[in-house]
Specification:
heterodimer; A: 442 residues; alpha/beta; Rossmann fold; N-(1-d-carboxylethyl)-l-norvaline Dehydrogenase, domain 2; 2 domains; eight-stranded mixed beta sheet; three-stranded antiparallel beta sheet; 18 helices; globular; B: 414 residues; Peroxisomal Thiolase, Chain A, domain 1; nine-stranded mixed beta sheet; 34% helix; 16% strand
Chain lengths: 442, 414
């Protein structure tokens, strides 16, 4: 199989979106390796396909800025790529030429027909199975050789395959946000995914220097399989607390516990804001049919959505209001669900601290512990102390850690993940946790 | 000229902060002061110590690449910006890459010798954080022959000295050389921590040796040097007054407040030629020998030296070029502690280029200021003891790969 031929014409569907734009950038790096680095004498085309022309226009600005960053970081290698070009002497001349050469390969389009010429279709449109099926079958009809790599994080790939008649020419290629930075890539084969496509996917991921975890084709896969259930458990704990303390304190407490006492980079509700309440609901809805015996929804989530509390980010990457309001990335206010209004966190902080009660004397922070070589020792000491304390905060934290571990083990038992290590890799690299959910701390 | 025909003094030295990564005040994405600020701060400080602009006959400004870092030329016309009292006085700018500061000193000294001036304000500056390091590397590559830029490394000068380090490893042993380079870095940071204008003044790293031994990463940088073997990107200015005996009287200061120049040399080598030997700095050796001959002293009489350690390996080679150690014995000399602040000849007592900083066009003047401070007891926390058997000091300023060299020998004024 000629892999280079496969890379000659590639389309990214949903290229102007958050994930699509990152995937486009990564693919442009790969094409540059072939066209400029290996001097393949072919015409390479990278189609950026999206419904919005204005979004595609601003996409090009993002791609350029990423190409410059990439070129600056790899200037040593780039100079060798352009060593025959006597007119390019300074680093800035080489970087400009590189950006120009790569941009020349990228073409924007709002028409799905553009993808008919592509051997590879990367898809990062919204999580709408019917739409994915429609587009894929349309392309397949016009280009029987096309391979499909979908970024879906929740829809079973096998269902798309079957409904779109792709017969093994599809694989799950789930990047984490933002794709250019995030090292993790979940690869999901269906029962029929053809071996060439599977091998190609892994090789491409290696070339992109991603950490690959193979997940079974079960809705949610490993990443969302854990995250969604973790979030639902948090909502359940909050709901219980809200009965006596009200929702504002309940949100604030569980968020604090899941961040500070679980030593995670952000609290669970801040993470929901980051992902988006609407997106979270969407993911849960697309997972639900695969788990008829499990309730994958929560009334509070629906109520938030109905109250227009949606989270997500602005185009510049700053956080929109969600369960929390933020100033310069710091939580300043928290949403009181029953009264549908925000409450300044400083009004409830003291009460919440009193409610949490006794906490470990040893203070450890995710930021300092995550890269510490003695991380395991620090965490062990901290969680040991946590176990010995009988306070509301400590008990909730232990329960939370145990539940997170149970979700992880379930993913292994149901063979969604091949191993415990894979679950831990996903949470540590994809979610930046300092330790995996399957551990001896809980 | 084998002997100085007239007494020359330097005094009233001043260094701005060497601004760049490492300083707490430095934020790469926030606006920073421009070259005007640095020229003014250093110039005005020196003027204040010598009774104001009225006492100055002329000015010399050393700078390497303001034309590219700041898109600014006609630098002599910045002299009157320092003080209105300098308007209509002669002003000149000099360039010799990283030896531009040293050239500002020799140019000033020659005005004194030529008796066209009794008080010269010599100033050097560079403001180079205007560019990211990788683009700055293109600009700094101008210190080498442009026709070799294409074949050179993305980080051109680190590449040049990486090749020298590689050659040195091969000839004299990698392990001991690497150890000495690490020691060089540790000395530089420890000294810089004693000088509040130093770029590494805020350095609180507990494991300097570990940092110094960071493995090389040829994918992202050069083959034989890590980034800690290199001086950083700096913004800064230094100023000093160069005066005759008449000048001293005019400004009303005592010779004891000054250093007296007892010898100096300025030599240039052909920029289009490759180094004669990769493992030694032959042009520097010539400059040092000439300056020492004019001073009529021996190496054992030197109490401290400021050397041009743009790279740790350059510092070690400088030790050999100066004659403190034989060829190939520089690493041993450094490892035995002779160059550290309590050693027999403290080198770069405020951190040198690696520790204090390397605002390229300022460095030569900065070296003179440091020596003036040390010999006159003005070095504050960084003060070393100057014993009477070793009353002299020397500064060696290098432009490019051993191409433009200035060596100056000093003693305290009497």
């Amino acid at each position: 199989m000629d892999l280079i031929r496969k890379m000659e014409n590639v389309s990214v569907l949903g290229a102007a979106g958050k994930m699509g734009s990152g995937i486009l950038v990564l693919l442009s790096f790969e094409m540059a390796k072939l066209k400029i680095g290996q001097k393949e004498d072919k015409d390479f085309v990278l189609n950026a396909v999206d419904v919005s022309q204005s979004a595609l226009n601003s996409l090009l600005g993002y791609v350029k800025s990423q190409l410059v960053k990439h070129a600056e970081k790899n200037i040593v290698e780039l100079r060798t790529w352009y060593e025959d070009r006597e007119d390019l002497i300074d680093n800035d001349e080489i970087i400009s030429q590189f950006v120009y050469d790569v941009m020349e390969m990228i073409q924007t389009s709002t028409r799905i027909e553009t993808a008919y010429d592509s051997q590879l279709i990367f898809e990062a449109i919204k999580e709408d199975k019917a739409l994915k099926v429609k587009l894929f079958s349309q392309i397949k009809k016009n280009n029987p050789d096309a391979w499909f790599l979908t970024n879906t994080s929740s829809i079973p790939i096998g269902e798309i395959e079957k409904e779109a008649g792709l017969k093994g020419d599809i694989i799950g290629y789930h990047f984490y946000n933002p794709p250019v930075i995030q090292k993790l890539l979940e690869i999901i084969k269906t029962d029929h995914t053809n071996d060439d496509l599977a091998a190609f996917s892994v090789n491409l991921a290696k070339s992109m220097r991603k950490i690959v975890v193979q997940s079974r084709d079960v809705a949610g896969f490993i990443g969302n399989g854990h995250f969604m259930r973790d979030a639902l458990y948090a909502l359940k704990l909050a709901e219980e607390l809200a009965k006596t303390e009200g929702w504002a304190k309940a949100f604030f407490l569980i968020d604090t516990i899941s961040r500070d006492l679980l030593v995670r980079p952000m609290g669970i509700f801040q993470l929901l804001d980051y992902v988006g309440i609407d997106v979270t609901r969407f993911i849960l809805e697309s997972m639900q049919p695969s788990f008829p015996n499990e309730k994958l929804s929560h009334a509070a989530l629906n109520q938030l959505f109905d109250n227009e509390v949606k989270g997500g980010q602005f185009a510049d990457g700053s956080q929109k209001n969600g369960i929390f309001k933020y100033q310069k990335g710091r939580i300043t206010e928290v949403y009181d669900l029953e009264n549908a209004k925000y409450v300044p966190t400083e009004n409830i902080e003291m009460d919440c601290a009193a409610l949490l009660g006794e906490l470990p004397t040893l203070k450890i922070y995710w930021k300092s512990v995550v890269r510490d070589v003695k991380k395991a020792d620090h965490l062990k000491k901290f969680f040991n102390e946590l176990h010995q304390i009988d306070s509301v905060g400590a008990n909730l934290a232990i329960a939370y850690g145990k539940n997170s571990k149970a979700i992880g083990l379930m993913l292994v038992d149901t063979k969604v993940a091949e191993s415990k290590a894979d679950v831990n890799t996903v949470l540590q690299t994809g979610f930046f946790h300092a330790y995996g959910p399957i551990n001896d701390y809980f | 000229m084998n002997v100085l025909r007239k007494k020359i003094y330097m005094l009233a030295g001043y260094n701005t902060i060497s601004m760049g990564t490492g300083r707490n005040e430095f934020h790469p994405k926030k606006p920073r002061p421009g070259l005007e600020h640095y020229i003014q701060e250093a110039g005005q400080a020196t003027l204040k110590m010598i009774g104001g602009a009225k006492n100055v006959d002329e000015g010399v400004i050393g700078n390497f690449m303001a034309s590219r870092f700041n898109k600014q030329a006609n630098l002599p016309a910045f002299l009157p910006m320092i003080d209105a009292g300098l308007k209509y006085k002669p002003s000149v700018s000099v360039e010799g890459a990283c030896a531009s500061g040293g050239l500002a000193l020799t140019t000033g000294m020659k005005s004194i010798l030529a008796e066209t001036a009794d008080v010269v304000l010599a100033l050097g500056f560079e403001v180079q954080n205007s560019m990211k390091a990788m683009y700055g590397a293109d600009v700094l590559a101008g210190a080498g022959w442009q026709k070799t830029r294409k074949e050179g490394h993305a980080y051109f000068f680190p590449g040049v000295f990486s090749d020298r380090a590689g050659a040195y490893y091969e000839k004299f042993g990698r392990e001991i050389t690497r150890k000495a380079m690490a020691k060089w870095y540790c000395n530089a940071i420890e000294n810089a921590r004693l000088c509040k204008t130093a770029q590494e003044f805020h350095n609180t790293n507990m494991d300097l040796e570990g940092t110094a031994n960071t493995p090389v990463n040829p994918r992202a940088f050069v083959d034989h040097l890590n980034v800690f073997d290199c001086s950083k990107v700096s913004d800064g200015a230094s100023a000093i007054a160069i005066v005759s005996e008449e000048g001293l009287k005019r400004i009303g200061l005592n010779a004891k407040d000054a250093v007296e120049i007892v010898g100096f040399a300025h030599v240039a080598a052909d920029i289009t030629q490759k180094p004669e030997v990769m493992t030694g700095l032959t042009t520097m050796k010539v400059a040092v020998e000439k300056a020492m001959r004019m001073a009529g002293i021996t190496i054992d009489q030197l109490g401290t030296v400021e050397v041009h350690d743009c790279f740790s390996i350059a510092g070690i080679m400088a030790i050999e070029a100066i004659g403190l150690a034989e060829e190939g014995k520089g690493p041993e000399f450094v490892l035995e502690g002779h160059t550290s602040r309590c050693g027999k000849i403290p080198v770069n007592t405020t951190g040198g280029l690696i520790g204090w900083g390397h605002p390229t066009g300022a460095t030569g003047v900065h070296q003179a200021v440091t020596i003036w401070e040390q010999l006159t007891g003005n070095a504050g926390e960084a003060q070393i003891e100057i014993i009477k058997e070793r009353p002299y000091a020397m500064s060696v300023n290098m432009g490019g790969d051993d191409k433009s060299l200035v060596a100056v020998v000093y003693k305290r004024g009497e």
